[in-house]
């Protein structure tokens, strides 16, 4: 797995497939491995660049609060290092927050926006308090309880047991430091409304019909904000559409990045 150094911090990424670049951001609390079907068989015509956000997978952690902007800044450093002027930019859930943050930081780098099982809305006060409590719990007891709490809500009940088992293993493999920092970073994120309503490029929004974490209503809010965007609601998928319906997911991504 290749890496670059950002201010002395190793930042790892997967680089698979050939074609138009798609910078794809994983959700919480995962790593680039959260896109395993896509990494094994990239969507046709796409060069997939999938980083491990700071503090996840093999990438070193940064500050105590990993803001969405800091993660987006790391990804911009990757594009610079690879000499890629602009790319399709997408993300699942927390990865979508990072994609929106990147669009805020530098819209000139975004050829198209792919928002997967995510939302533009920030946390309310109760949500922020829950994130802080989760961060403290993870710091004191590790990621096990967080993973146990999330697992039943992540995927549709029809998901294959081996997919569910790999998802659980992946969550449990993440570092407490990285997970706590990202939890605090998500709590501090701002409303994406202004940036999405200004964004004028292509935009595809994908959501699992059975997503209970960022349900279709939240996807519809984003669709109304982005002029000309398309929304695809995938049957038989919960919050991890790319893992639950990989063939359909890949076909949508291939079509979107080909401009069809
Ligand atoms: C994720 O899947 O990345 C998280 O559930 C997002 C969130 O907690 O807001």
Description of the structure:
The chain is of the alpha/beta class and about 260 residues long. The protein has one domain: 3-Layer(aba) Sandwich (Rossmann fold). The protein contains 11 helices and 8 strands. The chain has helices at about 35-40, 70-80, 95-105, 125-140, 145-155, 160-170, 175-185, 195-200, 215-225, 240-245, 245-255; strands spanning about 5, 10-15, 20-25, 45-50, 85-90, 110-115, 205-210, 230-235. Strands 1-2-4-3-5-6-7-8 form an 8-stranded mixed β-sheet, sandwiched between helices. Strand 5, helix 3 and strand 6 (about 110-115) form a beta-alpha-beta unit. The chain is globular. Bound molecules: D-malate (MLT). D-malate (MLT) binds near residues 28, 186 and 213. The site of D-malate has 6 residues, from loops.
């Amino acid at each position: 797995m290749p890496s670059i150094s950002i201010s002395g911090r190793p930042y790892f990424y997967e680089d698979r497939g050939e074609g138009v670049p798609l910078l794809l951001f994983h959700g919480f609390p995962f790593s680039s491995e959260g896109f395993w079907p896509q990494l094994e068989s990239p969507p046709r015509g796409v060069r997939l660049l999938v980083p491990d956000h700071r503090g996840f997978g093999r990438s070193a952690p940064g500050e105590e609060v990993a803001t969405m902007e800091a993660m987006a800044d790391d990804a911009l450093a990757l594009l610079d290092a690879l000499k890629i002027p602009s790319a399709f930019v997408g993300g699942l859930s927390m990865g979508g927050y990072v994609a929106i943050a990147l669009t805020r930081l530098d819209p000139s780098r975004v050829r198209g926006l792919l928002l997967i099982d995510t939302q533009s809305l920030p946390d309310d006060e109760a949500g922020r308090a829950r994130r802080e409590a989760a961060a403290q719990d993870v710091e004191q007891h590790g990621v096990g309880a967080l993973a146990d709490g999330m697992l039943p809500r992540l995927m549709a009940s029809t998901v294959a047991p081996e997919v569910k088992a790999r998802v659980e293993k992946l969550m449990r493999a993440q570092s407490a430091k990285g997970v706590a920092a990202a939890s605090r970073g998500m709590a501090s994120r701002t409303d994406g409304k202004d940036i999405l309503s200004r964004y004028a490029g292509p935009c595809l929004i994908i959501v699992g019909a059975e997503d209970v974490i960022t349900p279709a209503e939240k996807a519809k809010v984003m669709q109304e904000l982005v002029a000309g965007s398309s929304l695809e609601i995938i049957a038989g998928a919960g919050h991890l559409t790319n893992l639950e319906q990989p063939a359909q997911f890949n076909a949508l991504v291939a079509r979107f990045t080909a401009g069809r």
